[in-house]
Amino acid sequence: MALKQILTEPDKILREKSLKVNQVDEDLQKLMDDMLETMYAAPGIGLAAIQVGVPKRVIILDIGLRDKSESTNDEKQVTRKNPMYFVNPEIITKSTNNSTYEEGCLSVPGQFAEIERPDKCHIKYLDYYGQPKELVAEGMLATCIQHEMDHLEGILFIDYLSKLKKSMIVKKLTKQKEQLDRIVI
Ligand code: ZN
Q: What's the CATH superfamily of 12-181?
């Protein structure tokens, strides 16, 4: 497995629409393994392939992530608990009731905002082995799935904010990137 670089806003690639996967083969499984390792290292609870620059309809999640009993002092230490792999995910139905979570994103570092989304969604997808599966997700899992599926359409959570709020965040991130560039030796 190998760590991949996570792209951050503003980056045009993050705005690309991801393409349907034709076959779940060894190469795709390797991509999913690398994505998982990258996500755990970040650490994060979800990642879409486009966030590591691969425009394929693949997302991974692990929302049962931190195990504090095994990692005493190191906050960044994460234990593989419940990795979930979704290839070609499609929403079959969504709830008309919404719930609100404070969302962040590995591609929008250090920024958080309350986002309202349907509190339940029924999806179909292919699993790690290419088997067709269905899942009814609720609560935080439903939010995470919808957040990651947005990435496949080139949508980031900041797109749901007011123009002003969004432009402030993008400005901040652009500045951060410029400063990062400056200290690269
Ligand atoms: Zn994200």
A: Peptide deformylase (3.90.45.10)
Ligand 1 geometric centre to CA of 182 (Å): 26
Separation of 106 CA from ligand 1 center, angstroms? Answer: 6
Centroid of ligand 1 to alpha carbon of 105 (angstroms): 4
pLDDT of residue 65: 45
Element (H, E) at 146: helix 139-152
CB 164 within 8 A of CB 158: no
Question: What residues have CB less than 8 Å from 53, skipping those under 6 apart?
Answer: 4, 5, 7, 13
**For residue 44, how far is its CA from the centre of ligand 1 (angstroms)?**
9
Residues of the chain whose pLDDT is less than 50?
A: 65-66, 69, 71-72, 75-78
Q: Which residues does the annotation mark as catalytic?
A: 148
The answer to whether 85 and 99 are in contact (CB under 8 A) is no
User: How far is residue 97's CA from residue 103's CA, in Å, rounded to a whole number?
Assistant: 18
| pLDDT given for residue 184 in this prediction | 59
CA 13/CA 51 separation, integer angstroms: 8
